[in-house]
Amino acid sequence: MLKKQLNNLLIVRFFLLQSAQTKAIILKFLSIVLFSIMVVLIRKASENLHVLEVVFFRNLLALIVMLPILRSIGIVAIKMKNTKLFFMRALVGAIGMIAGFTCLTLIPLAQATAISFSQPLFITIGAALFLGEIIKARRIAAIIIGIIGMLIIVQPGFNGFSLGVILSIIAAIALSINALIVKKLTLTDTPEAIVMWMVIMLIPITLVPAITVWQWPSFENWIYLWGIAIIGTLAHFAWTKAYSMAEITSLEPIGFIKLPIIALLGWMIFSEIPGTWTWVGGFIIFMSTIYISHRETKAADSLKPNDGAQEPKL
């Protein structure tokens, strides 16, 4: 017991001695591992419980997990200032969560993960359409390449778009819109309010469809559901902390590690073997999103448009 405590202390001490960049990398990797485990738990919970109930309990139990945080920060800290956007985010978030959870039960986990890499592509397009941001020529090329990568994964000309694939794309689009709404909310509301109200609002929204298929979870399912809530909350904390300690572009390349982790878990637990085109398409999508993130950061850091370069605009 003492030896175990010493080992834990050494791990914590090792972490604290690292630079901010190294800490961010460790936390990002930890969040990827936790999110991957959460995906497996979602699939396991959905084997004996309808996915609509899994979505509902994910939010209800997550709120219970976060109650100590709410108690420490106080009600005032989560006061809504932009109520309309909060409700819009909750509705879009519900669509994204239901579509995302459902697709995990219909297609291989690695395929769903590879398609999810397309979210930054949709965010860039949405920023141009709804926020008036300028998309420049190189980023347009990156978006086109990313879409080609998605087509390589789903291969519509050979297999057609299955329901699982369609739902995974809907989830990616919904979560991208959600990210744009959050970007707007951060201008008026606190991060604590944004996180807490998302969960609070999703509980009644996801309860309505869950009632139509209601059955009480078994003891085994309760374990999976609590695991989803706890691990999901820890993953979000690690993810948020990582991005507060380092630049996005320095951490984004680590995200591709999620695909082999998910592929390994899918093979070990569900006997799923991802196809070659899932790897190829996922890599293409991921590299295009890395480029877009790089260009966005470079543009944000520049005091002049394109940092003096004359890049064509759309």
Describe this structure in words.
This protein is mostly helical and 314 residues long. It has one domain (28-308). Helices cover 78% and strands 0% of the residues. It has helices at 2-16, 20-48, 51-73, 83-103, 109-116, 119-130, 137-154, 156-159, 163-185, 191-211, 219-245, 248-251, 258-270, 276-301. The termini are far apart.
Summarize this entry quickly.
This protein has 314 residues and is an all-alpha fold. It is built from 14 helices and no strands.
What are the salient characteristics of this protein?
mainly alpha; 314 residues; single chain; globular
Report the helical percentage. Answer: over 70%
* Strand tally: 0
Rounded mean pLDDT score: 81
Order of helices and strands: HHHHHHHHHHHHHH
The class by helix and strand makeup works out as mainly alpha
- Give start-end ranges of low-pLDDT stretches: 303-314
Please give the count of helices.
14
Query: Approximately how much beta-strand content do the residues carry?
Result: under 5%
Write the layout of secondary structure elements.
Layout: H1 2-16, H2 20-48, H3 51-73, H4 83-103, H5 109-116, H6 119-130, H7 137-154, H8 156-159, H9 163-185, H10 191-211, H11 219-245, H12 248-251, H13 258-270, H14 276-301
